[in-house]
Amino acid sequence: MLGCENVAKFYCASAVEYLLAILGAIMPFHAIAILSGNRQKTIPNKSEDQILSQVVLPFVSKGVISAKWGKKTQSYQVLELRIVETESAWDKRTGTLTDLLKRKRNQFPRFKDKAQKLLGKNRPRVFVIMPIQGEKHGTQEDQRVYREYDERFVAVESVIAEYGGVAIRIDKEHPLEDLVGRIKKEIRDAAFIVADLTDERPSCYFEAGYAEALPRPVVYVASKQSVLKPGTSTKIHFDIHINVNLFTNHKELKEKLGSAIEKNRTKLFGEARDG
């Protein structure tokens, strides 16, 4: 015969199993967001309505999603979105989410059809002008350059997210349409621009000049030394050098960019343009 303590444990365990069964029935959808730099974010255990409203709709309308990863809710530019349905909600005690989603059909097209008639408010978009150099799988030197600019973008992205915006970068690995046309559209749609003039790339100066001519507010940054030629000072052309926030490492980049945004917050975070 079961004692009172054992009876309580039995009913408690049964209640937990029942709750998990309910959650499994209503929250079997999971999102996989592919970000620039071949990064990946997952959003597990959502209902069909949650996946549509919180994930698919923002992605379809503006190419960004917002979700809570860790303790903070942040927004990210998403290059590709996959939606997977499982028979039950994911329980981390049973294995990894990656294993659970293997060989599951991508249901994003079905959700995309539903989302195309819906529009929602999106966080201000901030276009990031930055050299896209190096190779992820190239020589050690190529990998070093690629990694530096990729980590630099992540630093910029985190600062912009803290102010409620989402950083947008055109990744050379994903030229889904006319590249120059896409860049111009992103600059027109942006609330403001962050332009990294390190290594004096002509394309970066072209994009910054286009933004100035529209006009769009531009926050200029540059590392004190070249990435391609360490030990060589970065040269800033024209008379914009007085407005460039120079930095030596990613921590200083975040501090100076955050300070520049804070000082000009009202001017920078106006309504995003529709071009």
Can you characterise this structure?
The chain is of the alpha/beta class. The chain has two domains: 27-115, no CATH class; 125-268, Rossmann fold, CATH 3.40.50.450. Helices cover 42% and strands 20% of the residues. It has nine helices and ten strands. The strands form three sheets. A five-stranded parallel β-sheet has the order 7-6-8-9-10, with helices on both faces. It has a three-stranded antiparallel β-sheet with strand order 2-1-5. Strands 3-4 form a two-stranded antiparallel ribbon. Helix 2 crosses helix 4 (108-115) and helix 5 runs parallel beside helix 8. The radius of gyration is 23 Å and the shape is globular.
How much beta, percentage-wise?
15-25%
Shape: globular
The largest β sheet comes out as: 5 strands, parallel
Output the structural class. Answer: alpha/beta
The first-level CATH class name of the largest domain: Alpha Beta
CATH topology of the largest domain: Rossmann fold
- Global mean pLDDT: 82
Helix percentage? 40-55%
What CATH architecture of the largest domain would you give? 3-Layer(aba) Sandwich
